[in-house]
Write a structure and sequence with these properties.
With 319 residues, this protein is of the alpha/beta class. It has helices spanning 17-28, 48-58, 72-82, 101-112, 173-178, 192-201, 233-247, 251-272, 277-292, 306-317; strands at 7-13, 35-42, 62-67, 87-90, 96-97, 116-125, 130-132, 169-172, 205-217. Helices cover 40% and strands 18% of the residues. The longest helix has 22 residues, at 251-272.
Length: 319
């Protein structure tokens, strides 16, 4: 009987041909060999499928699944359904990774019996050809010195200790399945619910304080640079997160953290979106969403970041 793979690597792919080879090379070249690689093509219209099949023909660990275009969330869920490994690594097709990433992450996760392991990443500025630190992706100062740890032992906003993306983390597959963790099938912010649900459900969280992944920035084709087409997805993601917290009787413990994060996430979207949707978003926040998120009417001292609170007050006065 074949032994179960140590890690299932899930990679959603959509029109990624220009950068896909670098990503795949960094995955098939991992020093941990006992992995399966599940690539889910989400209806690409370029050469992505041909590249995936080329790699799969050379490496029996790799499987290619194709689907009609339904978004990265749907593609990730297809990957979850196909995965059989002990742990899950859910990557993005335009990023690339240190060759020892999976070996080191798996060893640390196994040593701690972790349900969730988070390691460090940095950013690769494609326009400059340079790497930049991103210490804010893992805020070690908010974590306790002992293990195991869970969200109750964090000393700062639970939703800002780690970032709500998947590719700098390992997830125990059994933990994911037992907690019915799935990705929202929305255009952007589709991984936030999955990640933050894992953070608040996990009783055994571990970190690896080493940069092992490189997020590509300033890629004009990335979803993060076309958010005007999905300007309201974060609203749907925040509402879904609140619903999950309420369903599991956790909202009363995390209400202040959630509301502060909702303000932070709302203002981030407002400050970074461009084009005509910026006014649409501002009006939605001012007229409905600030109140819906529980932000409206809170006293100044309720908010952790006074600069964000000041901007919130300013936005409420904008005609």
């Amino acid at each position: 009987m074949k032994n179960r793979e140590k890690i299932s690597v899930i990679i959603p792919v959509y029109n990624a041909s220009e950068r896909l080879r670098q990503c795949l090379d960094s995955v098939v070249g991992q020093t941990l060999r006992d992995i399966e690689i599940i690539c889910v093509d989400d209806g690409s219209e370029d050469d992505s499928v041909a590249i995936l099949k080329e790699y799969a023909a050379k490496d029996s660990r790799m499987r290619v699944i194709t689907q009609e275009n339904a978004g990265a969330g749907a593609a990730r869920n297809r990957g979850l359904d196909a995965a059989a490994g002990e742990y899950l690594s859910i990557l993005d097709s335009d990023d690339f990774f240190e060759p020892t990433m999976l070996e080191k992450a798996y060893a640390k996760a196994k040593k701690s019996d972790a349900q969730l392991l988070v390691f460090r990443s940095d950013q690769y500025r494609e326009d400059l050809g340079q790497f930049a630190e991103a210490k804010w992706t893992l805020r070690k100062e908010a974590l306790p010195p002992y293990r195991p740890m869970n969200f109750r032992t964090f000393t700062d906003n639970v939703f800002k200790v780690f970032v709500g993306w998947t590719w700098d983390k390992l997830f125990l597959r059994e933990f994911v399945e037992d907690n019915y963790l799935r990705f929202q099938e929305i255009r952007t912010s589709n991984d936030m619910l999955f990640v933050f649900s894992a953070v608040v459900f996990a009783e055994r969280i571990e970190i690896l304080d080493e940069v092992l992944a490189h997020q590509r920035r300033n890629n004009p084709k990335s979803l993060s640079n076309t958010r005007d087409k999905s300007w309201n997805c974060f609203h749907e993601a925040l509402n879904a997160l609140k619903a999950v917290l309420e369903e599991h009787d956790l909202y009363w413990q995390l209400e202040q953290d959630y509301i502060n994060y909702a303000l932070h996430f709302s203002l981030w979207h407002l400050n970074t979106i461009t084009g005509p949707k910026k006014k649409v978003l501002r009006d939605a926040l001012k007229n409905e969403w600030f109140e819906e998120f529980g932000i409206k009417g809170r006293p100044k001292g309720y908010f952790y970041n006074q600069k964000e609170y000041a901007q919130y007050l300013k936005e409420c006065l904008v005609p």
